[in-house]
Amino acid sequence: MIIRKYAGSDERVLLKRIRAELGADAVILHTSFRKSAGLWRWLRRDRVEILAGGGFKIVKDYPNAVSAPSTQIRRAPSPDEEAIRREINEIKSMITRQNELLQHERRFQGCPEELAGEYLALAERLSESLAQKLIRRIVEMLPPQELKNRTVVRQALRGALRDLIRCADGIALRPGECARVAMIGPTGVGKTTTIAKLMAVYATKYGKDVAVVTNDTYRLAATEQIKRVAAILGVPVRVCPGPDEIRQAVEEFARKDLVLLDTAGRSQKHAARVEELCRALEAARPHETHLVVSLTAHPDTTAEVIRNFSSCAFDRIVLTKLDEAVKIGVVLDVLSRVQKELSFVTTGQEIPRDIEIADSGRIASLILGEESA
């Protein structure tokens, strides 16, 4: 089974090509005609687009088949019928996707093929609005003749993406004094695992004297995870149920290079719980507060998290589960909702390997499909 899109200015030429490539049994699934328009309408003649398929299995009726009475119990489908159903669903999905791509193309009809190709690639990884915004930016940056050079277009896109991704250089250590850094966010985004990774990285790779304060007394597993990693590294941990205990622990660790505060997960929907978190932060007096956001969350949920945790005055963002994200470009969707810098990105569960200091060039390459998570 093959489904392909054919486009050109001569319908007869396209039909001959379809017959030659897909065979005499090729099926025309969709045909559309359009006149060139837009800023580059002088670059193209009127176009015809044909969505065609070939290699389909033809299901014949069995000559002795008899319809079962409606009162009989329906029999389970045979393996052949299941295979046919799966194939039909696959065809439907492919046709739907091809039609979506055609709709995307029409938004930039008349533009050079190279630019349209980059737009389609972006639309696979970004929201449609961000993909359009980037392409319009490229159109404004480059002269018309360079828009037909895909290498130049790709370089311009990479630069535009880097400009949109604001990054901090991890944690800003404070020579000669203790840097206090808090991690906040909803339940299940990976705060505790991120704390464990940072503890290991700064204690081993950077050779810093690290301590951990946690008030996540709601989940026993979270505290145990921190304690296990800390025991291996020789890092002291204090479990602090309330603000008074947090204040005492911070004073105890005042001579450390870095104190990491692991907070209990709080639902963005419960204002009282978020306010409780704010009181814990007031006791800790962190120099940096990082909001931890999962890239697997729906953009609307992320927007709600950012909005409702803003009362905690966070100044950095950590993006987790990059390796599980369906669309890597959701990074930009997150950052476009708040004027904060990105500090870290996590790419898996392994400690301490699967964490990176945020780098705009690396993230731009991921969005463009030039690197993998």
Specify the helix fraction band.
40-55%
Q: Count the beta strands.
A: 11
Per the principal axes of the C-alpha atoms, what is the gross shape? elongated
Treating each run of at least 4 consecutive H or I residues as one helix, how many helices? Answer: 12
The helix/strand order is EHEEHHHHEHEHEHEHEHEHEEH
Percent strand equals 15-25%
Q: What's the N-to-C terminus distance?
A: 31 Å
Give the spatial strand order of the biggest sheet: 6-5-7-4-8-9-10-11
CATH class categorisation of the largest domain:
Alpha Beta
As for the CATH topology of the largest domain, it is Rossmann fold
Our Rg estimate from Cα atoms comes to: 28 Å
State the CATH superfamily name of the largest domain: P-loop containing nucleotide triphosphate hydrolases
Estimated structural class: alpha/beta
